[in-house]
Write a structure and sequence with these properties.
CATH superfamily: Isochorismatase-like
Strand content: 15-25%
Strand order of the largest sheet: 3-4-2-1-5-6-7
CATH topology: Rossmann fold
Number of strands: 7
Shape: globular
Number of helices: 6
CATH class: Alpha Beta
């Protein structure tokens, strides 16, 4: 069985209290996320890392405060979460897919599946099981998990490496994952 790790939106604007769209408690996830990402590298597991990459006047800012503007400090992923062997998959249709240990998939909306190249990346990786973690459980993680489940993939969510904007919606989201066939796991179980 081929496993792929999916690190969702672990960017400065979401992870830290000074960030534009801070997810409460997310900074505590950084050691777990770094451990998972480096575990993937050490074991030859492909790693997809999604990343918001907005323009200064992005349409998403009609619904959300400005965040993760391309080229700003808030858009950056913390160094501890980055692998040396990485590539970036842009969101222009037909962007080249360069396979690397870590593939940073840029997106301009909550759902990574809005990147027109993401489906082709999933086809190239041909994963049987996707291990998902990051922020925010009730938004971008939810979109990634439900999209993967909808594509017929086996999905496991790492419960001690996610954080929700609101605890109550995070809990409902976990129930929704399980009801749709997803499983719940922990960092310890994934990295045994």
């Amino acid at each position: 069985m081929k496993t792929v790790f999916v690190d969702v939106d672990t960017q400065i604007d979401f992870l830290f209290p000074a960030g534009a769209l801070y997810v409460p408690g997310a900074e505590r996830l950084l050691p777990a996320i770094a451990h998972l990402n480096h575990f993937a590298a050490a074991h030859g597991i492909p790693l997809i890392s999604t990343a918001d990459s907005h323009s200064e006047n992005d349409p998403e800012f009609q619904s959300w405060p400005p965040h993760c503007v391309a080229g700003t400090a808030g858009q950056v992923k913390p160094a501890a979460t980055l692998l040396e062997n990485r590539s970036t998959l842009g969101s222009r249709p037909g962007s080249a897919i360069e396979l690397a240990g870590q593939i940073v998939v840029e997106k301009q909306a909550l759902d990574v599946f809005t990147n027109p190249n993401f489906g082709a990346l999933l086809d190239r990786l041909a994963g049987d099981r996707y291990v998902v973690y990051g922020v925010a459980t009730d938004y971008c993680v939810r979109c990634a998990v439900l999209g993967l489940l909808g594509a017929g993939k086996r999905v496991a969510v790492v419960t001690d490496a996610i954080a929700a904007v609101k605890p109550e919606t995070g809990a409902r989201t976990l129930h929704e994952f399980a009801a749709q066939g997803g499983s719940l796991t922990t960092v310890g179980d994934v990295t045994k």
